[in-house]
Amino acid sequence: MEDMPPILPDPDTIAAAAMEIYTSRDGQVAILRLVGRLTVGEEPGGLKKATVDAVAGGATTVLLDLSQVPYIDSTRLGELIAAHVTVSRHGGRLVLAGATARITDLLTVAGLEGIVEMFPSTDTAFAGLKNRT
Question: Which domains occur in the chain, in start order?
Answer without folding.
Answer: 14-126 (3.30.750.24)
